[in-house]
């Protein structure tokens, strides 16, 4: 659902990490012990609001801004997974977790230094090139190797 306060909402196909236990200050070599699993995410962002607000809470946190699914995969090697995104059936994002600036283990470790992580918390890990805007009537599909496909229709209230 597109927010009423934005006219520029973009899609971002992302691998998401689901935390499985309470943790804080997790060293990289212990990250696997705190992860429950992984899923697909569409990190929708209100770009016009992101540019004008002093922080990104509205731009990244509006209702329905982060659809997840289709399920949680508990056994997955995240070192080199294909991440793809299609806008209305056209491939727009095509990357791999091996191209990420930081590995999943690094990301979880860094985040756990700032926040106590709780079971069910989700960390979105970043998106490949190709981000663009969606409009009402569009459909955006996120597919991550080893997990499956998340499909989102885009509507405006």
Describe the structure.
With 157 residues, the protein is of the alpha+beta class. The chain has one domain (9-153): Fumarylacetoacetate hydrolase, domain 2, CATH 3.90.850.10. 14% of the residues lie in helices and 35% in strands. The chain is built from three helices and eleven strands. The protein has helices spanning 47-52, 57-61, 104-114; strands at residues 9-10, 13-19, 35-42, 45-46, 68-73, 82-87, 90-96, 122-124, 133-134, 139-144, 148-153. The strands form three sheets. A four-stranded antiparallel beta sheet has the order 5-3-2-8, covered by helices on one side. Strands 7-6-10-11 form a four-stranded antiparallel beta sheet, with no helix packed on it. A three-stranded antiparallel beta sheet has the order 4-1-9. It is globular and about 45 Å long. The mean pLDDT is 97.
Number of strands: 11
Q: Roughly how many Å apart are the termini? A: 7 Å
* Low-confidence parts: none
Could you tell me the radius of gyration in angstroms?
A: 15 Å
Q: Mean of the pLDDT scores? A: 97
Class from helix and strand fractions: alpha+beta
| CATH classification, class level | Alpha Beta
Q: What's the CATH topology name? A: Fumarylacetoacetate hydrolase, domain 2
Order of helices and strands: EEEEHHEEEHEEEE
Under the CATH scheme, which architecture would be assigned?
A: Alpha-Beta Complex
Q: What's the arrangement of strands in the largest beta sheet?
A: 5-3-2-8
Number of distinct helices: 3
- Helix % is 10-25%
Dominant shape:
globular
Assembly state of the chains shown: single chain
Q: Biggest sheet: strands, sense, closure?
A: 4 strands, antiparallel
| Count of structural domains | 1
- Percent in strands: 35-45%
